[in-house]
Amino acid sequence: MGFTTIKSSFHTADGDVVGGSARVKALWIAHSGNVGTVKLRDGGSTSTIMMTLNTALAADEYQCEIPEPGLRFETKPYVDISGGISSVTVFYD
Predict the structure, then answer these.
(1) pLDDT digits (tens, 9 = 90+) for 44-69
(2) Which CATH number is 71's domain given?
(3) Which positions ≥6 away from 2 have C-beta within 8 Å?
(4) Rounded Cα–Cα distance for residues 22 and 86 (Å)
């Protein structure tokens, strides 16, 4: 197993994680007391949904680790935030 350089991208609104292909390794999600949803899409706001995470009706923070080798985004990873999500940090290489 080789070593990689993990990078991160912080989001408080929808947007590109990085401008090209990448492999998402983990997410850190902070949210208010309202139900929220985080969708990871491959390409942009209307592209294929690769992963969906729903949060509970309680203020909290979540860590989501994606099993090796991570989730591959061929075009570019895009984070779609809705509901009570305060912020999302995406870890990728």
Answers:
(1) 999 999 999 998 888 889 899 999 89
(2) 2.60.120
(3) none
(4) 24
